[in-house]
Design a protein that fits this description.
There is one protein chain. The chain is an alpha+beta fold. The chain is 20% helix and 29% strand. It has 3 helices and 8 strands. A hairpin with a 6-residue loop joins β2 and β3 (44-52). α1 (19-27) runs antiparallel to α2 (54-66). The radius of gyration is 17 Å and the shape is elongated.
Length: 136
């Protein structure tokens, strides 16, 4: 069994389909939804972990693509804009996974490790300069 993190983009035509149900029932996949913004008559996003056999994940991914759902396995819903960031460090103590760190306080340089980010969005709430944002 393997687990893949996926960010799905739903076009308007796919927002009312029971997609997660089919991934579980038809492809024997376990789904853990982290964030979702999918409403009828609009486009939407879904961030989830998909667990199962590699073969079933591939089949499930093909099913999603057949519905014109875009799959991104590398990008997260949270992004950091280095140009807007003033390296103040306000976000660092609010990050529970240390995805945002300031390893050397003498040079005050913020580091963002998107692999460690769990999309809790705490950083977005405390950034006074809007350097952190989310698609959700």
């Amino acid at each position: 069994m393997i687990t893949k993190k996926m960010l799905l983009y739903f076009p308007q035509c796919a927002t009312e389909s029971p997609i997660v149900y089919h991934l579980v029932k038809d492809y024997d996949l376990m789904i853990n939804i982290f964030r979702a913004r999918v409403t009828p008559d609009e486009e939407g996003f879904l961030l989830l972990d998909v667990s199962g056999s590699e073969e079933n994940i591939l089949k499930g991914s093909d099913y999603l693509r057949s519905l014109k759902i875009q799959i991104n396995e590398t990008v997260k819903g949270v992004s950091w804009d280095r140009d807007k960031c003033v390296q103040c460090g306000s976000c660092v103590p609010h990050c529970p996974t240390e995805a945002l760190t300031m390893p050397d306080r003498t040079i005050m340089e913020l580091k963002f490790n998107s692999n460690e980010c769990v999309e809790c969005l705490s950083c977005i709430k405390v950034c006074p300069f809007g350097a952190l944002s989310s698609i959700f």
